[in-house]
Each structure stands twice: as C-alpha cells, then as structure tokens.
Specification:
Number of domains of chain B: 2
Number of domains of chain A: 1
Structural class of chain A: mainly alpha
Number of strands of chain B: 9
Distance between the termini of chain A: 21 Å
Order of helices and strands of chain A: EHEHH
Structural class of chain B: alpha+beta
Number of helices of chain B: 4
Order of helices and strands of chain B: HHHEEEEEHEEEE
Helix content of chain B: 25-40%
Helix content of chain A: 40-55%
CATH superfamily of the largest domain in chain B: Alkylmercury lyase
Largest sheet of chain B: 8 strands, antiparallel
Distance between the termini of chain B: 20 Å
CATH topology of the largest domain in chain B: Bactericidal permeability-increasing protein, domain 1
Oligomer: heterodimer
CATH class of the largest domain in chain B: Alpha Beta
Radius of gyration of chain A: 15 Å
Radius of gyration of chain B: 17 Å
Number of helices of chain A: 3
Shape of chain A: globular
Largest sheet of chain A: none
CATH architecture of the largest domain in chain B: Super Roll
Amino acid sequence: MLLFRSEEDIEAWCAQRQITPGAVFDLARLWSLATAWYDDRLNSAWRRRTIPERQAILDAAGLTGSFWSLTAS
Amino acid sequence: MEIPSQYPVYDCPHVNTDPVGRTSDIRDSEIRLWIYHHFVETGRAPSPVEIAARFQLTPGEVENRLRRLQDEADALVLLPGSPYIWMAEPFSAVPTSFIVRSGTRAWWANCIWDALAILALVGTDGSVSTACPHSGQPLVVSATRRGLEEAQGIVHFAVPAREWWRSIGFT
C-alpha cells in the first residue's frame, strides 16, 4: 500500500506499469484500519486472527465489496 | 524521492536483553513478544545471536523457533534462505520507503498502512515520512495519541485483499 500525492499520480503510476488501479481512499480511513488491524500485536496472547475476524475489521472500516473480500475467488 | 536525512537512531536500548534462564520452558509466544518489544525500543530486529543470548538457546534452536513462528504462527517473515527476521508486521527489519519517527526513535515500515500502525502501537506522537512513488514529492503524515494530525496524500491498494499474502513484499 503506497501513499500518493493525488489520484492523478495513482492513475499515471498504474498506467506506466500497466496495472489496473486498485482501491483508493484517504488517510483517515487507513488510520482506523491500521489501529484496529494491529491492536493486538503487543499482547502476550496474540494469535493470527481468523479470516472472519480479519474480514470483520475491514467491514468495520467501511471496506466492503469484492476487492476487500478475503475469500472471493 | 526524499532521501532520509537521518537513519533510525538506536539510542533507546531499554529492551531487556538479560538472559531469562531456563530454556526448555520458553514458549514461542514469549520469543515473539520479545522480538516485538525489541523493535519498539530499538527500531530494529534482534539478530539470531541476540535471541539466543536472551533465551539461552543454541543457534539451531533459535532458527527452529523462528521458522515455527513464521510457518506455523504466521507471526513474522524471515529473509528468504536465512534465519534473519525480515519483517514482524508492521515493523520492517530492512530499510524501506516509509520512515516512522517519534522523538529520538525511528522505525522502518513495510507500507503506509504499517507505518500508521507503528505510530498507533507505540502510542506516542510521531510522523511518517515517505514520497509519492510517481511524482517523488515528499509526503509527511503526523499523528498524536488522539489520532491523525497532518495528513498529506491519498492511499492506493494495488492488490485485492484475497491476494495480500501471495507476495508479502508487494501489496
């Protein structure tokens, strides 16, 4: 996940690499996602979250749809 | 692209490196947690030798533990073909384009997501320095315990969520 100056920069960067643009959103949403996703890493009882648990964090951050599905084929 | 004017400063060696004594009872989870505290306090991953000294393990035992933490617990990633830690998300043991700073401490992050996560995990005021991969313009994101303060830039996820772990180095 990279940070760009603008959406125009994302489009140009993807075009140069012949990559289909993925998902774009602001830092406020990423902050919410990052804090929830990693909030257990310094816990002694940490374990890898299950896929449904991870999906729930994405959902709570408003990241829904096929791009954000951890199981869609 | 912004060239970091200052590499991470490892002047907070508050992580406890004293040997812990009896070894057979040491759980992988204790080693994992100590690795994380080492990252938090020093900005870098402990080497296998440092882990061996802390937990009084042989080099072979350390490598076995680290491989188990990677392969079974999914707790960290080793540099391919080596016993050295590459990343313990959100921390990177190798230099990246995302430098996180708080006071005199600094860390490398694997991506902008992980950079914000480090600030949240450490729980202090700090900033992330990176640069737009297309324009090269320096971008800075700062945060306090209350949340984001300065927020320059827009986030791009190139890879769908289901493929994030297919190539851990590119998402």
